[in-house]
């Protein structure tokens, strides 16, 4: 079976974000670093070449595939900010309705820039997303909910 490519690395996530070329993505990345440090109480780690993640959980699929993934994270990609762990929770519908301009993928929340969303709602999504992620972590059965 193929090895999971999204594993944590020793690269410095702060230096990586500070090196992001696009100035808005870089500034938004630094803001997200501070927000997620505060919400999670964890220091960030790089996951793969482009995801800044906080904490981790194990996942297991019925197919036998398993691995670890960050409970919360983000990537300041060229097209948008990809936010991981902010969705898939009971509180999501109300919060997303109040968030501002965004898109939802299978497991990601995409926003163009932080200025497009309500920062208080984004914080609420982070808090509830992390709390929900810790439930998955404690159960050790996040397979169906894993990214």
Q: What structural keywords apply?
A:
147 residues, six-stranded antiparallel sheet, 20% strand, globular, disordered C terminus
Describe the overall structure:
The protein has 147 residues and is an alpha+beta fold. Helix content is 36%, strand content 20%. The chain has 4 helices and 8 strands; from the N terminus they run H-H-E-E-E-E-E-E-H-E-E-H. The protein has helices spanning 13-18, 23-40, 92-99, 119-139; strands at 45-47, 51-54, 57-60, 66-69, 72-76, 81-84, 103-104, 108-111. The strands form 2 sheets. It has a 6-stranded antiparallel β-sheet. Strand 1 (45-47) and strand 2 form a beta hairpin. Helix 2 crosses helix 4 and helix 3 runs antiparallel to helix 4. It is globular, with a radius of gyration of 15 Å. It starts with 12 loop residues before the first helix and ends in an 8-residue tail after the last helix. The model is unreliable at 142-147 (pLDDT under 50).
How would you describe the shape? globular
Are there runs of 5+ residues with pLDDT below 50, and where?
142-147
Which series of helices and strands comes N to C?
HHEEEEEEHEEH
The chain-level mean pLDDT equals 87
* Number of H- or I-type helical stretches: 4
Mind describing the biggest β-sheet?
6 strands, antiparallel
Relative strand content: 15-25%
In terms of structural class, how would the helical and strand content be classed?
alpha+beta
* Radius of gyration, whole Å: 15 Å
Quick one: how many beta strands?
A: 8
Q: Order of strands in the sheet with the most strands?
A: 1-2-5-6-8-7
Straight-line distance between termini: 18 Å
Helix content: 25-40%
């Amino acid at each position: 079976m193929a090895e999971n490519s999204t594993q944590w690395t020793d690269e410095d996530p702060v230096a990586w974000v500070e090196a992001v070329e696009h100035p808005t993505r870089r500034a938004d990345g630094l803001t997200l670093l501070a927000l997620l440090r505060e919400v999670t109480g964890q220091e960030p780690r790089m996951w793969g070449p482009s995801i800044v993640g906080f904490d981790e959980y194990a996942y297991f699929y019925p197919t036998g595939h398993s691995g670890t993934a960050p409970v919360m994270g983000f990537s300041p990609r060229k097209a948008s900010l990809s936010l991981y762990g902010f969705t898939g929770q009971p509180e999501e519908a109300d919060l997303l309705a109040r968030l501002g301009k965004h898109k939802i993928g299978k497991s990601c929340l995409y926003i163009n820039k932080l200025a497009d969303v309500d920062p208080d709602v984004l914080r609420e999504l982070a808090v509830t997303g992390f709390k929900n992620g810790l439930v998955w972590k404690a159960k050790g059965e996040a397979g169906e909910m894993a990214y």
